[in-house]
Amino acid sequence: MATTPDAFLTVRDLSVRFRTEDGVVRAVDRVGFELERGRTLGIVGESGSGKSVTSLSVLGLHDPRHTEIEGEITLDGQVLTSAPESVLEKLRGNKMAMVFQDSLTALSPYYTVGRQIAEPFRKHTGASRREARQRAVEMLDKVGIPNARLRVDDYPHQFSGGMRQRAMIAMALVCDPELLIADEPTTALDVTVQAQILDLLMDLQQQTGSAIVLITHDLGVVAHTVDELLVMYAGRVVERGTVDEVLRAPRHPYTWGLLGSMPRLESDVDEPLVPIPGSPPSLLSPPPGCPFHPRCAYAAEVPDDRCRTERPELRPGRAAACHLPRDRQQAVFTEQIAPRLS
Amino acid sequence: MSDTVSRGEPLLVAEGLTKHFPVMGGFPFRRRVGAVQAVDKIDLTVRAGESFGLVGESGCGKSTTGRLLTRLLEPTAGRISYRGRDITHARRTELAPIRSEIQMIFQDPYSSLNPRQTVGRIISGPMEINDIRPAGGREARVRELLEIVGLNPEHYNRFPHEFSGGQRQRIGVARALALEPRLVVADEPVSALDVSIQAQVVNLLRSLQRDLGIAFLFIAHDLAVVRHFSQRVAVMYLGKIVETGSRDDIYRSPRHPYTHALLSAVPEGVTASPSPRRERIRLTGDVPSPILPPSGCRFRTRCWKATDLCAAEEPPLAQVDGSSGSHLTACHFPEP
Amino acid sequence: MLRFLARRSLGALVIILLISAITFLLFFALPSQPALMSCGKNCTPDAIAVINKNLGLDQPVPVQYWHYMTGIFMGRDFSVGHCPAPCFGYSFSNQQPVWGTIVDRFPTTLSITLGGAAAFLVVGVGIGMLAAAFRGTWVDKFFSSLSLVGNALQIYFVGVVALAVLVSGLHWMDNPAYYPITRNPGKWFMGMLIPWLVLSIIFIANYSRMTRSQMIEQLGEDHVRTAKAKGLSRRTVFFRYAWRGAMAPIVTIFGIDLGSLFGGAIITEFTFSLHGLGRLAVSSVNETDLPTLMAVMLVGCTAIVVANIVVDAAYALIDPRVRLA
Fold first, then answer.
1. Is B331 among the domain residues?
2. pLDDT digits (tens, 9 = 90+) for A233-253
3. Which 3 state secondary structure label does DSSP give B151?
4. Would C12 be classed as within a structural domain?
C-alpha cells in the first residue's frame, strides 16, 4: 500500500493473535489503513470481526502475555508497535485517546467523574490539582453537562447513560488528542441520545481538527459521520472506500448481506429482510481462502474453487477482497441488491 | 380453552394498567418515600393473530408492561383481561390454563436458557410442566419445533453453550412455541444479536406470526425493527403511551412530537440512491426521572412546543384533528 | 455517610438489646439454683431465700432483666453494697463486681484479636497483590502453593509447634504473656508476637488467595482498561484502580473473620496460656458463674457488632455506590 505523505495514522499488515486454552485465535489478519488529520474513518463489522481488537492495538492495550502482534502501526511518524511501554504511556490519553462503549463499566465506580477527567490532564501536562479540576469542569461544560461545576464531584452512577458517555468523551478529549478512537460510542444509548453524542463528536472534531476512528456495528451510524469506511469480517478488511462508495455501490457480498439485513424505515414491509445465512466462522480455525465463502451465495460462480482455496487480495484504494470479477460485482449489485434497498 | 379465536378479535386487553415500584428511604426507619411510576394508566389491546409493537427508549416502561401483561409482575392498579376473562389478580391455579396460551421470549439468549439442560429438555420443559403429551411423543414434537425454528433436529441432545447467539435465540423461540401459544410476548428478542443474525430471527418471527397466526406483543427500542414486524404500534415515554395507531399512522404521519423526534433520530437509512436528508429534530437532555415525572405532559421538558398548558394539564390519549379513528395521540399541540 | 453510620448504629443497638434479652432469659430463667453456689456448706432454705433476695432472684424475670439493664448504665444497689455503673452484677464465684474482671481480661483478647487481624490483613493482602502483579511467574506459584499449606493448618497445631520451636527449642522468645500496652509497649509487642504470628500463618493463606483472584478479576475490568488508555502508569492503574475494587469483597470477609476471631478466642487463649475473655468464659461456665458469663457474652457481642459497623463504614468509604443504600 502506498503511503500518502500526510498520513497521520498508518496501520500496515497488522495481525493480532491471542493464545487461549482452546488454541490460537486469529483475531486480526493483515489489516491495513491510513488516516489523515481532520478525517474520520469508520470501521464496521459484527462481533468478532476484529474491529475492536484493531483499535486496542493502536493504543497498545493488549496483554502482551497472551497476544502476538505483527505488522506496523505509526502515529505521526512514530512507530508504536515497537515503542516501549513508557513511550506509549506518554501518548495514551494525550496524543491518542479512546472512548469506550459501555460507560457504566468503562468508568471507575470508585472515583468522581471530575477526578477521572482531571487525572490524565495532570499526568500529561503537569497541571496542579486545582488547574486540573478547573479543566475538568471546563470539559464537562464543553460536552454539554448542565451544572458542570456541581456535577464534577458526582460519581459515575449518579449520571444517566447519556451523561456518562459525555463524561467519557470529556475524559478522552481533556488533553486535546490528535487521534480519537471511539469504540461503539453510541451502542449502549437510546436513539435520541445516540444522535446527540454523534453530533457532539463531529462538532468537537470541527473545533479541534483531530483524526477520528469510529468503530461500530451499525451501518446507519457511519452514513453521515465518517469519510472513509472499512468493512471487516472474521479479522480481515473485506471492503474499503469512501463512505458513499461503500454504501451506495458496495462490491463485497458480505457488505451486500449487511445492507440487506438492516431493517429500514423506508423499505417495503411486506418483503422479508434478506439475512446472511449461517453464522460467522470460528477464529480458532477460520475457513481457508475467503473467510466469507461458506455464507456467500456467489462463491460457486468463481471458477477453480478459488474462494475456498485462495485468499482474495485487497488492492490499494477503493477495493473489495473478493474473487468475483469487477463487472460481475457491479452487475449483481445493480440487478439484485440495489432494487431491494431502495 | 382450545376453541378457535378469529383473527382480529381482542385477545389481551389492558385498561388503566399501572405499576409503581416503591422507593424506600428516610431516617431512622426506612419507609416508602416515593414511587417509580414505571407504567402509569395505560390502555392497550392485542388482537388475535396480529403483531402489536411497543416502542420506546430505555426506562419508558415497555418491559415492565410486558411483564405485567404476562403476570410476572403484580399490577398496582388497572385491569388485564384475556379473551374477556379478568386475570388482573388471578391466582396461580386460575392462571394455569392461560399460561400455556401466553408465552415469553427474552432479550438475552445467554441467560434465559439453563446451561445444564440439553436443548431437548429445555424445549420439552413447558410440555412436562403442563402435562401435555403430543401425539407421537414429546421428543418427536421437540424435533419438529427445532425444524420449525431452523435448527437441526439432530441437535436435540446438545447444550446451549454449543450454539451461537442467534441459534440460542431460536431455542428460546422453540421453547415458547412448545405449547402452541396464541400470544407471544417478545421482549427485545433481537437486540442482543448481530445485524445479519437479527434479520434471520426477525424473519423467523414474522413467518411464525403469519403462518401460525400467533399474536405478538413485540417490545423493542429499535423503530425500524418494529416497523418491519408490527401492524399496530404504540410509542411509550416515561410510563405513558404517547401515541398509538397503525404502522402507517405512526411511521408515515406521526402526530406526537416525541414520535417525530424518535423517527428523525434513527440513523438515516442507507439507500442505493441518494435520498434528501430528512429534517432532523434533536432532543436535548435525557429522560427525566420516573420518580418525579414532570407535571402535565411528561414529554414537555424536552419538547420544543411546550407551553404553560402542557405543564398544567395532561393531554389525553385521543384522536386528534386530521387523524384516522384508530390513531390516538396524547398531545395538546400535535404535529401537522 | 453520617446518616448511614447512624442508621447502622441504631440497628446494632437493637441487635445487642435482643441478644442481651435472649441470653438473660436462657441463663437466668433456666431452673438453675445460683444461690446454692454462693451459699456454701451449711446451707439452709432460709439462707438460700436470703441470698435470692439479696441478688434480686426472687423477682419476676422481666423485672430482673430491667434491673440488670439499668444497672449497666446507672449502677445498682445490692444488699452487699453499691455496684457502680457499669454494673454487670456480682460474680457468684468470687463475690466481686463482674466489671472489674472484664476490665482486667478484655485488653488481652482485644490485643490478640486486633493485632493478629491487622497482621494477617496487611501481610495477606500484600502477598496477594504481589502474586497478582507477578501472575504466572515463580513468585505467584510459590505463594499459591504456600497458601494451600497454610489453609490446611489449625491454630492448636501451629500454636503448639510455634511454642515448641521458638520458645522451648530455640529459646528465641519467652512464652506469650500480656503486658498492658500503656505501661510498656515494647513488652506488650513481644508478648503478643507469637499469637499474632500463628494467627497470621493461618489466615494469610485465605487473604492472599482472595486478594490475588480479586486483583486479577479487577485488572480485567473495563474501567481498568480505561485507566490504562488514559496513559496512567502501570503502578497507578494497579494500586489506584484495580486495588480499590478488589478491596470491597475482602473487607466484607474481614468483618466475618473478626467475629470468628472473638469467637475463637477460647482456643487461642488456651493454646498460649493467656488470660483473656475466652478463658474467663470457660471458667465461668465451669463454675456456673452466670453474671460473669452473661457479661462476657454481652461484651463479646458488642465487640463483634462494633467491628461490623467499622467494616460497613470502610466498605462505604471504598465503594461510593453503597453510601446511598
1. no
2. 999 999 999 999 999 899 999
3. coil
4. no
Same domain, C257 and C229: yes
Q: What pLDDT score was predicted for residue A318? A: 94
Nearest to A191 among B207, B265, B270 (CB): B265
Which cell numbers hold the place of B127?
410440555
C149-166: pLDDT as tens digits: 777 777 777 777 777 777
Total of domains in chain C: 2
Query: Are B30 and B149 in contact, with CB atoms under 8 Å apart?
Result: no
pTM of the model: 0.84
Specify if B268 maps to a domain.
no
**Scanning every residue of chain B, which has its alpha carbon at the shortest distance from the alpha carbon of A163?**
B286
What ipTM was estimated for this complex?
0.88
Residues C325, C319: Cα–Cα separation, whole Å? 11
Cβ(A85)–Cβ(C234) below 8 Å: yes
What is each CA distance from A192 to B105, B194, B264, B266, in whole angstroms?
26, 21, 9, 8
Residues 218-257 of A with CB under 8 A from B: 218-221, 223-224, 247-249, 257
CB A225 within 8 A of CB A42: yes
Distance from CA of B289 to the nearest CA of A (A): 10
What CATH number does the domain containing B134 carry? 3.40.50.300
Supply A146's cell numbers: 448542565
CATH code: domain of residue C191: 1.10.3720.10
Q: How far apart are CA A231 and CA B156, in angstroms?
A: 36
Query: Taking the C-alpha atoms of C314, C316, C318 and C324 in order, what is their torsion angle to the nearest 10 degrees?
Result: -170
Q: What is the distance, to the nearest Å, from the Cα of residue A328 to the centroid of all Cα atoms in its chain?
A: 30
Query: Are the beta carbons of C91 and C98 closer than 8 angstroms?
Result: yes
Domain of residue C41: give its range: 33-87
Q: Are A227 and A195 in contact (CB under 8 A)?
A: no
Task: Give the residue carrying C-alpha cell 389481551.
Answer: B12
Q: How far is CA B307 from the centre of its chain?
A: 32
| pLDDT for the residue A306 | 92
Alpha helix locations (H) across B219-256? 223-229, 247-252
